[in-house]
Design a protein that fits this description.
Blueprint lengths: L4 H20 L3 H48 L6 H71 L15 H40 L1
């Protein structure tokens, strides 16, 4: 095991990532629960509501057809003819039956749509809230762990890579750049000091 400061840093980061992955496993239970609830809501509640809507639409078509039939019969109705009067009464009974069926299915659809909306809100307010809280706790623990690692290893640590040759170039370049900036700063300070020297001598002469 690498005993250098950089090695300890890499080991600490690895442990933090391992801890984060272990904590992430806690998200599986509420996530699976949410998936099951959504699938049940999708394949049972929504499907049942859709079937009721389709039955209502078929009943609506049947009701409208019976109304058109009654309209045609009423236009051809002769009150003096017994058979036509019986036919008209039969059509009226058919219209009343189809209307009652349509009204019942229409009420069923309204109730199921309301129930569907309430079930959806219920599902997301409980199951989704549990998943969100678990996810929030996971990110809080992960953030605290990584922040602690960051606080314990502040500052840039020079490290010479002997095994990973592809990393030597960027590290060496960064070291040279840092050293060059320091040298440039020292040169600028020296030039400023040289410029101030003669001026100070001249000032001393003037005072005399």
């Amino acid at each position: 095991m690498d005993k250098t400061r950089t090695g300890k840093m890499m080991a600490a980061v690895g442990k933090a990532e391992s801890f984060s992955s272990q904590q992430r496993l806690a998200l599986r239970v509420p996530l699976v629960r949410l998936y099951q609830e959504v699938e049940t809501f999708r394949y049972r509640a929504i499907s049942d509501c859709l079937m009721t809507i389709n039955r209502m639409e078929a009943s609506r078509t049947e009701y409208r057809g019976s109304l058109l039939w009654m309209k045609d019969v009423s236009e051809q109705l002769d009150p003096d003819t017994y058979k036509q009067l019986e036919k008209f009464r039969k059509v009226q009974t058919q219209v009343r039956g189809t209307r009652g069926k349509f009204e019942k299915l229409k009420n069923d659809v309204c109730q199921k749509v309301d129930l569907l909306g309430a079930s959806r809100c219920n599902m997301f307010s409980h199951t989704l809230a549990t998943y969100q809280n678990t996810l929030l706790h996971y990110w809080e623990k992960t953030a605290r762990t990584l922040s602690a690692v960051h606080e314990s290893f502040k500052g840039y640590q020079h490290y010479e890579f002997t095994m990973l040759k592809q990393l030597e170039g960027p590290v060496q370049k960064l070291i040279e750049q840092t050293t060059g900036e320091r040298k440039e700063g020292e040169v600028e300070k020296g030039e400023e000091a040289e410029e101030e020297g003669p001026n100070r001598l001249i000032n001393f002469g003037d005072d005399r």
